[in-house]
Amino acid sequence: QVQLVESGGGLVQPGGSLRLSCSASGSISSFSVMAWYRQSPGRQREWVAEIYRQGQINYASSVRDRFIISRDNANKMLFLQMMDLKPEDTAVYFCNAGGTIWGQGTQVTVSS
Do the Cβ atoms of 108 and 13 come closer than 8 Å? Predict the structure, then answer.
């Protein structure tokens, strides 16, 4: 089974940017959809963005126009470029493949 490892999280000031990466141990080409989710303390995990193999992209309304999802099938990578970060974006961010495979998450903290 493919394993996913996220990286790129950290502490950033409001208005700042971060780029999250998700590296897969095997091919991701077979997965129709790859996605990012996030979970804040005391809240349920929520969907952030998804990208289909054919190129269709969807975003949660809370991140639209600030986040950009992309995938590199050849290098088995998924990315999330996050801009104009807000304190409410603070969460653990998870990579997901095919709706069933999860990474361990990477912490993003937005604070001054």
Answer: no
